[in-house]
Amino acid sequence: MWEKVQNFASEFFVTGDPLIYGADVSIAVTLIAVITVLTYFKKWKWLWSEWLTTVDHKKIGIMYIISAFLMLFRGGVDALLMRTQLAVPEMSFLTPDHYNQIFTTHGVIMILFMAMPFMFGLFNVIVPLQLGARDVAFPFLNSLSFWLFFSGAMLFNISFVIGGSPDAGWLAYPPYSELMYNPGVGQDFYIWGIQISGIGSLMTGINFIVTILKMRAPGMKLMKMPMFSWSVLSSCIAIIFSFPILTATLALLFLDRYAGAHFFTLDGGGNPMMYINLIWMWGHPEVYIIVLPAFGIFSEIVATFSKKKLFGYKSMVYAMMIISILSFLVWAHHFFTMGSGADVNAFFALTTMLIAIPTGVKVFNWLFTMFRGKITFESPMLWTIGFIPCFIVGGLTGVLLSVAPADFQFHNSYFLVAHFHQVIIGGVVFGYFAGLYYWWPKLFGFKLNERIGKWAFWFWNIGFYLCFMPQYVLGLMGMTRRVVSYGWDKGWYEMNLVSTIGAVLMGIAFLFQVWQIAHGVKHRNANLDTTGDPWNGRTLEWSIPSPAPHYNFAVLPQVTDQDDWWERKLRKQEGHATPAPAKLEPIHMPKNSGIPIIMSACWFVAGFGFVFHWTPFIIAGLAGVAISMLVHSFNYKTDYYIPVDEIVRTEAKKGRVTG
Amino acid sequence: MKLSKAYKRLALVAMPIVLLLMTGCTNNIIVLDPKGPIAEQQRDLMVISTILGSIVVVPVLIMTAVIIWRYRDREGRKAAYTPRWEHSTKLEIIWWGIPIIIILALGVITVKGTYALEPSKPLESEQKEITVQVTSLNWKWLFQYPEQGIATINELKIPNGVPVRFEITADSPMNSFWIPQLGGQMYAMSGMAMTLYLQADEEGEYWGSGANFTGRHFADMYFDVESMSQEEFDQWVDEIKATSPALTLDGYKKLVEPSTSQVLAFSSFPDQLFEMTVTKYATSHNHGLSTGKQDKPQGQQEEEEEPSMDHMGH
Ligand code: HEM
Ligand SMILES: [Cu+2]
Ligand SMILES: [Cu+2]
Predict the structure, then answer these.
(1) How many CB atoms are located within 10 Å of the residue A88 CB?
(2) pTM value?
(3) Per the CB < 8 Å rule, is A376 touching B49?
């Protein structure tokens, strides 16, 4: 009996590596610490009713962003481990198996569990405020999306200590990801972690499209909508068309592994190339899904900190919509070397290059927003200025990659690794950081220390160039991606060492950011944002107090202009009378619900069952999902009204007089 | 603001180091140091497209710096400030126009290059081409020379100045066959044989590698490449024929088993080994190569097709 348990445990838990034991211990310690603190301060109830069951888009957004930061940490540790391994030739810090798992989890976590939730966090926090709305279109669904993402992320992350992590790269190409070559449970964790959170992503996409189309404040025509909201719309359109492809593709891979189907196997009529096509039909749009909102953020920030209207609003809108559509027509540029023939390659090379045109236009528009502006350099603007040259260079190398015959030499090399990190870090990560710094006061009601922020900025930037510029050279020296080590004979020594130093600098930069946030929380009372408009903003979110009250707007704003808030401020300055505030009315709000978190937990159980082929878990989990849905369907007490006197009190506390 | 000076100094120190390192060891940048016609044309394409791209990128980078510097907010600034200026048809036409023109030029070059450098297109040459059949195994490369009747592991020798027709497949997860100084890569996929023409124009030693991740010892899939005169090549073939063992079917099955390998040579190999490797995945024929893993549904048997050497599925 005991032996059986032991055997089981040694297969169930990942063993044999000091790093893993270290992680086990730290996970256990953290869990115990969290539970102790919550119990000691009697915070369980508060946690449940204020956060875990909330349907408030702002709180959901904050939970997304916290998760994203945790995942940035995990993905960043992965990155540092890899860079340590690659620092010098013939290093044996990580075994090949371990390295393979780490580049896989790093990629998956960074894209799906860091960038996506960071982005959804910003959508959640800002879009309803920018639109002058009280919440998203479907608040319950929104909460469910978050918890599905969270369950998926956790399921993926526990593979680290239970069962073993996936090791087939972030896109899990078959046949390597099939049972034949990959019999462990790692790939199943991959499939279910992504599937569960992917459903959440799809629902978020739908939710925000409806929110943007239906919930805008009266008078806000589409062509008066703030640019960030436009970017969210374009991103969500790409989400609703691409995520179903991902779900279907992974479902087929799952059937191959679980039920012995032959969709992508080499035998039984399967074809791995089909998977590669399908996964990139999602994968390429995915990279635009995450970068478009960053473009939106930069557009808002450039205008605000140049104190000038965004240049070329219309062409910005067209450019984003064109990118959103074109991103579905370029997927094969990820495998020019599959031998599809000159016709196919030429077509996809051309469509890829076409995307450079609207992207280039956006850069010009940002530049000409600054042109004849009055630029100041607070954190959000610094990140934006860091972004522009980085993205221009990354865009150039992207165009080089799209030259199909040349890509035969770039493909799968470090040149590619350098390129996508340059556009992803320089574009997406810098963009979300910029957004976070920009909207931080709105989220939390206080400002962050600018000096620590500048340290973080410079460390990120210098670290970035040190880390990734040498990798372009390494690619041209013939170094392929995903290699665990290399010999002395290739002459890759210096570049790799520099690259690792750069990575360490970025690690330090991250610590500066953590410090900045801790410092901000500690000294928050000295840095309160009492105006609600700390940057002299232009759009509606700055018209309400910081942090926004839970109903957002005491009275829904009547919009007349693009940059409505800015225009209102100007009119006031010019001495026009401000219209008397409208009469308050009770506000209709959605009620909290525990169902999303419970249902997602059931998904987690079912996913776990699928991973280990434990049928009772699968049945229990899916039954729980079905029951949660039923319970929700028969729950009619889903909303309530905030009475007028409570609104008056809340507004007064935030220093606002109401009519 | 003492500190901000410190950052600037830091940046000033860091940047030259990067530049120095980037230019310091050019002799290793093998992709830019081609030794054959394909790699050479690919290098030229890289250079041309970089120059074309730079025509836009460099001025834009300079413009960025100038704009940020000139329009920064400070006391006594003379530069204009026009907070409502947000549209100019003329300007917007210009910068939809500039990228369109550059992309048009690049597009023409790319399409031409794509057809010219289509990997399966035979190279024009006075010399008669030789064929090398390449199989990616876990984790080693098998090279078969059907015309010479020999085979090697992890070592590729080719006659200089002669077009080489590589036929590429995999008896492993998908890999990619890459010899940077001779030309770009091509996927090695089970169940199909891809064609890639390369040629070396200079005698010398190069190397190649697997470029698509295949698992545990992926990083060991390097192989030596040597381009030598026709006489030396013939001599090498004769020597292998005289001194090396034969590769048997059982020997091949051993090679397929996951392991790394040293350089090996074989004086002969089983007839049609490469074709069998390809077709054992492409059809339900087993050709004595079955690994026993393929459990096929009954109905499959009827759908047998002629084993095809073509690239299936596109
Ligand atoms: C912060 C500094 C970062 C460093 C130092 C870093 C480093 C690395 C390294 C060393 C690899 C493995 C290369 C290989 O072995 O082929 C890698 C792969 C990857 N990284 Fe990062 N990375 C960073 C940030 C990011 C971010 C922010 C993202 C995305 C949002 C990202 C996405 C990826 C992806 C998708 C891969 C490919 C994984 C695969 O090969 O399947 N990385 N990164
Ligand atoms: Cu792509
Ligand atoms: Cu193919």
Answers:
(1) 16
(2) 0.92
(3) no
